Amino acid sequence: MQSKRKIIFAGLDNSGKTSIIISLQEKFSYFDTKPTLGLSRSKFSTLDCLGFGIVLWDLGAQRKFRKNYFKHRYQVFSNTSSVFYIIDIQDSNRFNESIEYFSKIIDVYNELDEKTDFFICFHKVDPDISNKREIQDKIKILIENLLSIAQNSRISFFNTTIYDLSSLFLAFSNGIMHFSPIALLINEQLEEFAKLSNSSAVLLMSEDLLVIGNYSMSDYYIDLCEIVGLRFLNVMDSFKSNPVRLDNVIVEVNYDTELIVSNENEKPLKRGQKAKIVMTSFKISNNIQFYIITFIKNILMSKSHEDLLPILKNNLSDMMYLLIK
Ligand SMILES: Nc1nc2c(ncn2[C@@H]2O[C@H](COP(=O)(O)OP(=O)(O)OP(=O)(O)O)[C@@H](O)[C@H]2O)c(=O)[nH]1
Ligand SMILES: [Mg+2]
Asked: Could you tell me where in the chain the CATH 3.40.50.300 domains are found?
């Protein structure tokens, strides 16, 4: 578990690789990036605490550097745990060039005979354009193209923007958790808890916003947990220098809110019925804080949840302790 994992960030110049990495590292700071001159490596030190030694390789992608990567392809691309491939969704003039570059990278992995997981980020899907039909259509076509190129690879897709940190952390969490055996155990634990406690979704996050694990009956519920959870973590962040600690925060959710009604896929529950989201936290020995966020569809069925949550906390805390030991 201690050997360093290599995660590559590739994609055309100006697609946003360095911005993504800085956002992940600096959480809330504002910055201005310059083109990356060649390969830049950065250690993700917070993850070291979780037992994942991770090094991010940022492949600065001006044309002259790209050539070099293929020349030295063995050193650059071999032994990679995940490849994040970033596509600037706002720059459709360069989609073909980007697909070509991706295709070359796939060829390298085929040549090296190495399996790696690809995480494609359609990037710069900023909040003001994310719902536009035009953007959705572009993404659809790109997905078809990319899938046809990477037929034998495991590949997942994310919409990301630096203006919504949760979008970055979701993609990144997927990219690092997929190679952790402990993540599997954690997910099993979360699933068992959800089933026994009538929870529709349960989410485990670290204080630096990584989704360590989750289980849910439907994507919709987990999205809700993520949205509320991230806001909650932001609030917690502002309490850092303050001795006050919020715990067991409960949010009541009414089913007649616009938020729920506007979701077409989920046709739930009687109007007037109440749900709740419960957020609680635990700390492990070296002071890393974790948050459990659960969604209970029917507030009247939450007794077992109350009983089981402390047990889940204990179990997870033991597991995280083992992970970082
Ligand atoms: N609108 C928008 N702009 C972004 C976003 N992410 C990055 N940018 C901007 O895109 C430009 C390029 O970002 P970089 O992170 O430097 O791009 P890069 O992929 O590292 O480029 P190279 O180092 O040349 O390969 C910068 O001006 C960023 O501010 C985003 O989510 N939305
Ligand atoms: Mg860069």
From this structure: 5-177
